[in-house]
Amino acid sequence: MGFYQRDFMEGTRGTMSVDWEERIDMQRMREERKERALTRMREAGLGSMLLINDPNVRYVTGLAMTGGSGADHYTLLTEDGDIVHWDTADHASNQQFNCPWISDIRYACPGLGNVPRASGRDSARDWLKDKMAGLVYEAMEEYGVAKEPMGIDIGNAPLISKFEDRGVDVRTDECAKVMEDARKVKTRDEIECLRMVAALCEAGFQRITETAKPGVRESEVWGEATRELWGLGAMVQGGYVTSGPNTWPKHQANTTDRIIRPGDIVYADFYNIGFMGYRSCYYRTFSMGEPTQAQQDAYETARDNLYDVLERIKPGATTDEICKGFPDMEGEHADWYDATDHWQMTTNHWAHGLGLQLYEVPLIWRGISPDHPIEIEEGMTMAVETMEPADRQGVRVEEMVVVRENGVEILSQWPVEEITQIEY
Prior knowledge:
Blueprint: H1 26-43, E1 48-51, H2 54-61, E2 74-78, E3 83-87, H3 89-98, E4 104-107, H4 114-119, H5 122-142, E5 150-152, H6 157-165, E6 170-171, H7 173-184, H8 188-211, H9 218-231, E7 235-236, E8 240-243, E9 265-275, E10 278-288, H10 293-312, H11 319-322, H12 334-337, E11 350-353, E12 360-364, E13 381-390, E14 393-404, E15 407-410, E16 420-422
Parallel strand pairs: 1-5, 3-4, 5-6, 10-16
Antiparallel strand pairs: 1-2, 2-3, 7-9, 8-9, 9-10, 11-12, 11-13, 13-14, 14-15
């Protein structure tokens, strides 16, 4: 099977919004995401959902959730499509002014996370949870959904009990399923955000080729790469550059102060680089000078394993069949790890969904897929990654893709046929 070929003029455009060309339509993306969640919520028989997890809040509201001290921001979505959002004093004030598509923004009481934990008193923690539940319940009464089942996307028993004390029928499993179903297939604008974040990562790779050389530390190279990404408008919340013996097995500290030397393999993992909240996961491998034959052979093995998997991905295919493209236990080099089963080999060979989180549906992995398969759907987006040891070092390679009608479109475009050679 061949790969999806983009139409003429289809692909990334500028990073800014303009009046003279259609690019990522932010309003359309917000509306379509909300409608997907709303439709599935109604189908699940829920009158409302309380969303606390940052990616779910952003998916429904379009508000930039960049972490915080815990449940100091949360959102209620009602069956009529109304949204009530609670946030910290400064955030809520800014949102009231800058985010006119949300008409009901209120000040939050943080019932979970760092604020209750730091209070030092069980009585304070109980009061904060009760206050948070009370604020949400008041809104549920205002919007006429207090008597209907309410989904909640976290399973915090003390908070749930505060709602149950008020007579709310709380559903956690249904809410998790609603948001999983809504988010697993991406809209056209979500796909374009992922295509854009791949392009940003490629700017980082280019900066690596310009700065990596013998005598330079990994941390210096990573610093220059992230400077490039921030300058282009990306949010850098993960990733690393590693070299030499740190490349296999993958170094526990990620980027270190190790000095790069001639003959080193260097690879970069741009994961959790964000554009409009959408996350990357994108490996590429570099060599300091001409790679050895063993390094070239290892890279060819890793690349071929990757593309074996990509050839298997299409709508209707199941993950138990697709995962057979990844190496068996011998190919995983399990004896080196003293491992006996694929579940012990987390992160080495797998594919994982990409979106507003680094790991979304689907997960394709020999560790679980043979016994717990799911079906691939058109519009799913994912990263597929492989690795291979060579000469006491290692290579890694990864592609970001979207599932199309007859296969995958590869969103990542940095050359993949060979190790990128850096001359110095």
